[in-house]
């Protein structure tokens, strides 16, 4: 497996070199909206420490990301009036991974509405900003 590339796009977001629509942050994890959402509220949860994917992440960092993904899933049920949540996580190109810093997708779902294909369409900045505010508020409300 190739080694971690510190210039991947999520590493740049983690360093604050590129912007994101942040929904949650603690000392070990960051969560922000996917700019090409497969459904409204599609969120990505990342460990802050460098890890390419599930094959090299320390178990404790993976467990923390899973804990944050669960918090976001619960908040997203309310924030987006979802009927369910799809959680996805891809590893290496053959496994569907495109950005090589570990991330978990948390995707709110409505009954009967299929997900868009990956990277189908960029969402409008004002829509993402409003959704990030809504989800962050639901998280803060517990
Ligand atoms: P994966 O590597 O698991 O296949 O997915 C990478 C995800 O990152 C895709 O869902 C894609 O829409 C998203 N993505 C790609 N570039 C950016 C970006 O610059 N910002 C954000 N927030 N998401 C991105």
Describe this structure in words.
This protein has a five-stranded antiparallel beta sheet. The protein has one domain (about 10-140): HIT family, subunit A. With about 140 residues, it is of the alpha+beta class. It is globular and about 40 Å long. Helices cover about 30% and strands about 20% of the residues. The protein has three helices and five strands. The chain binds guanosine-5'-monophosphate. The site of guanosine-5'-monophosphate (5GP) has 14 residues, from loops. Guanosine-5'-monophosphate binds near residues 32, 96 and 97.
Q: Residue share in helices?
A: 25-40%
CATH H-level superfamily: HIT-like
Distance between the amino and carboxyl termini = 39 Å
Q: What name does CATH use for the topology?
A: HIT family, subunit A
β-strand percent reads 15-25%
Total tally of structural domains? 1
Please tally the helical runs, counting DSSP H or I stretches of 4 or more residues. 3
Q: Shape, please?
A: globular
Average of the residue pLDDT scores = 97
CATH architecture: 2-Layer Sandwich
Residue runs with pLDDT of under 50 for 5 or more positions: none
Question: How many strands in all?
Answer: 5
| Small molecules (ligands, ions, cofactors) in the structure | guanosine-5'-monophosphate
The CATH class turns out to be Alpha Beta
Taken in chain order, the helices and strands follow as HEEEHEEH
Quick synopsis:
The chain has one domain: HIT-like (HIT family, subunit A, 2-Layer Sandwich), CATH 3.30.428. It has three helices and five strands, in the order αβββαββα.
């Amino acid at each position: 497996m190739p080694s971690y590339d510190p210039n991947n796009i999520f590493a740049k977001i983690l360093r604050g070199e590129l912007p994101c629509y942040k929904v949650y942050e603690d000392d070990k994890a960051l969560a922000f909206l996917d700019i090409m959402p497969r459904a409204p509220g599609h969120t990505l949860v990342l460990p802050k420490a460098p890890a390419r994917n599930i094959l090299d992440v320390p178990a404790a960092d993976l467990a923390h990301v899973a804990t944050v993904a669960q918090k976001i899933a619960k908040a997203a049920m309310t924030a987006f009036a979802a009927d369910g949540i799809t959680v996805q996580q891809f590893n290496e190109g053959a496994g569907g991974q495109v950005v090589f810093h570990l991330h978990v997708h948390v995707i709110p779902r409505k009954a009967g509405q299929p997900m868009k294909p990956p990277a189908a369409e960029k969402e409008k900045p004002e829509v993402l900003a409003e959704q990030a505010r809504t989800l962050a508020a639901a998280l803060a409300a517990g």
